[in-house]
């Protein structure tokens, strides 16, 4: 089973995806860390994250330990991640990584194009969002908690700029999949957001099981048993 959780920054998708993975006994992958790690490699080299040749090389050289770095968050890492994520060569280099992870044992993956590009066949797709102002407030509090000085207005402007880059890029733009379940967390705390997401996921899985049973009763049991 693969569950795709997409949405813009600071909407709460990472927290939800992690908890869904724990509840379902599935591995979890924050795919945004892949792009952050590529961006950080380029910053370490003094290279421009928008340089397609250097960025592709960094993506193909990525190692699991790169995802455990402590400096993958913050304004510089955010901007670098958004820049490399707009490059088709980088996205292609990281696509197999993500698919191999999900196909190995099933997984919950969160990102911006999981349900549209990485796993369009995922049985459950969530698109998690919140108002710009609420997302900026959450990110601002997160930065303050890490001791990073930032003005709320600057955080809001950067979030909006990143949303525009992510939604407007030619390669895998951020958008809900056609069959994604939408969840607005603007007015929800962490517990309420998880309860809402869990209800959506269980409802979707339950409907799929009912559809499968109905098809089996119609005489297609062999075909569906083989593909399930």
TrEMBL record:
ATP binds at residues 7-15. One of its GO terms (molecular function) is ATP binding. GO terms for biological process: pyrimidine nucleotide metabolic process. CDD domains: CMPK (cd02020). Residues 209-218 have a biased composition (Basic and acidic residues). Its main location: cytoplasm. InterPro entries: Cytidylate_kin (IPR003136), Cytidylate_kinase_dom (IPR011994), P-loop_NTPase (IPR027417). It is found in: Cytoplasm. Keywords: ATP-binding, Cytoplasm, Kinase, Nucleotide-binding, Transferase. Residues 3-191 form the Cytidylate kinase domain. It comes from the Bacteria. Residues 209-228 are annotated as: Disordered. HAMAP family: Cytidyl_kinase_type1 (MF_00238). This is Cytidylate kinase. It comes from Teichococcus rhizosphaerae. The lineage of its organism: Bacteria, Pseudomonadati, Pseudomonadota, Alphaproteobacteria, Acetobacterales. The gene is cmk.
């Amino acid at each position: 089973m693969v569950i795709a959780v997409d949405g813009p920054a600071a909407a709460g998708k990472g927290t939800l995806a992690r908890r869904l993975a724990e509840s379902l006994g599935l591995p979890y992958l924050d795919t945004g860390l892949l792009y952050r790690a590529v961006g950080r490699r380029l910053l370490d080299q003094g290279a421009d994250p928008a340089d397609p040749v250097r960025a592709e090389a960094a993506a193909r050289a990525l190692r699991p330990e790169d995802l455990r770095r402590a400096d993958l968050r913050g304004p510089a890492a955010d901007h670098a991640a958004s820049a490399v994520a707009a490059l088709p060569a980088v996205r292609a280099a990281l696509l197999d990584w993500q698919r191999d992870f999900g196909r190995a044992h099933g997984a919950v993956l969160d990102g911006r194009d999981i349900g549209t590009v990485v796993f369009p066949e995922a049985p459950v797709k969530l698109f998690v969002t919140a108002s710009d102002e609420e997302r900026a407030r959450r990110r601002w509090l997160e930065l303050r908690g890490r001791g990073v000085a930032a003005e709320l207005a600057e955080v809001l402007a950067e979030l909006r700029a990143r949303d525009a880059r992510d939604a407007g890029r030619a390669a895998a733009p951020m958008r809900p999949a056609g069959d994604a379940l939408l969840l607005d967390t603007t007015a929800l705390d962490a517990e309420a957001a998880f309860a809402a997401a869990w209800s959506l996921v269980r409802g979707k899985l339950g409907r799929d099981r009912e559809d499968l049973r109905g098809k089996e009763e119609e005489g297609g049991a062999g075909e569906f048993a083989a593909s399930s």
